[in-house]
Amino acid sequence: MSATSMSVMIALGAFSGIFGIVYVFLMTRYKERIAMIERGVDASIFVSNNKSISPTLKFGMLFVGIALGIIIGDVMHQFYGLSKGTSFLSMVFLFGGLSLVINFFIERKLADQ
Length: 113
Fold this sequence. Notes:
Distance between the termini: 61 Å
Number of helices: 3
Order of helices and strands: HHH
Number of strands: 0
Radius of gyration: 22 Å
């Protein structure tokens, strides 16, 4: 098997796996909701009362944190001699996690208002 066909097979496998997981999740949720409606359960449980901020803020902060992690990881590699894998991976996780923690505090502060 050539390298090109192997990479195509891996890509197809990854996409079909992701599709399968999403399909099973959505179908299970649908069947669960239909069963609850047939039993006469109040439909208000499907509506979230969460006053949460749009997920756009969370994803935006996460991506900015990851980008900062990549930049700082490169600086650590260039100027401090850390190995490339260690510096990039540790900084991406560090700044990505910090951005999510900051997002938590921002959402909690906005929810208290």
